[in-house]
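A further point concerns the way the authors explain their paired sequence and structure data. For illustration, here is how one protein appears when written out as sequence plus structure tokens:
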Amino acid sequence: MPSDLTFFCELESRRLAALFADPALIPLLATHRCGVALALIDLTPERAQIVQQLTAAGVPVTAWLVLDPRDGYWLTLDNVDTARKRWQEVRNWTDAHQLTWRCVGLDIEAPQEDAVGLVDTPFLTLARLTWLRRSRQVWQNALNDLHDLVREIRADVGEVETYQFPFIADERAAQSTLLQRVLGIADLRVDREVLMLYRSTLPEPWGSALIDAYGPEAEAIAVGITGGGVEVLEATFAARELDLPLTLQELARAKRHTERLYVFSLEGCVKKGWLAALLEAPWPEFVPAPTLTRTHAGRLAARTLLAADRVVGRLRRMTRTQLP
């Protein structure tokens, strides 16, 4: 096992209480020194009680900040004001129940409606979002506001981590902002960045290459999906959910790059009945991904395209400054 293993948990309070009604679950997590990143879908006394139980048992809990689905659910360039209000609610709820957090997690993804479109009709949705992409000024203003939010959270709690899909690494390498302006995401620098290298999000053989392709650039790696997640997307990935051998294989791949590992999700492992086996089974030998060469070629092409957008942006700025 890695020295730092965290399970994502994304359940509303009723289902969360049912999950932790199993008296063996918290001791199992504590014995293996696991953490839980808990999506704050609602702020109820029942959720606070579970956080208290986990903390008392020595299981560190991360406050995973999410919004109402009508506001995009995940953090985006478009909902920073709402996110700041939500954090104030979380802070008040935290104080009222005297909760202790390991850190705060910010899930940076496209707005939920756009994310569903990218899964269901990827080409049409991407074309629409590209046409409607945000201006560089809108992007910069929102990014500044997100950094203000991070400073506010640090003052309240301490550490902040982000959950990012891997293409942010290509955007960063190309010194571009195109993907951020198209998808509404943000290259937000915090204390720890977790790349969500979910094998289940891509069909094979591409999904199996994600960790090998992006692992060398990752501070922390999340593997999955073992089940659960946002209801409107859950059915899409259900056929590609990881079983126990594949989850162990993905963790073994990821551990070659970092000790900070995450699994999505806790409820998926529990529902399938192999959480204890996952924590206690020996890990398999590393086997390289079969499509890694093609994956690297695809990343190079993407970076070239993103870099071209950067050049176009510079030319436009130069043209504007030279006009009388």
In short: The two ends are 64 Å apart (CA to CA). Residues 292-322 form the longest helix (31 residues). The domain at 4-322 is CATH 3.20.20 (TIM Barrel).
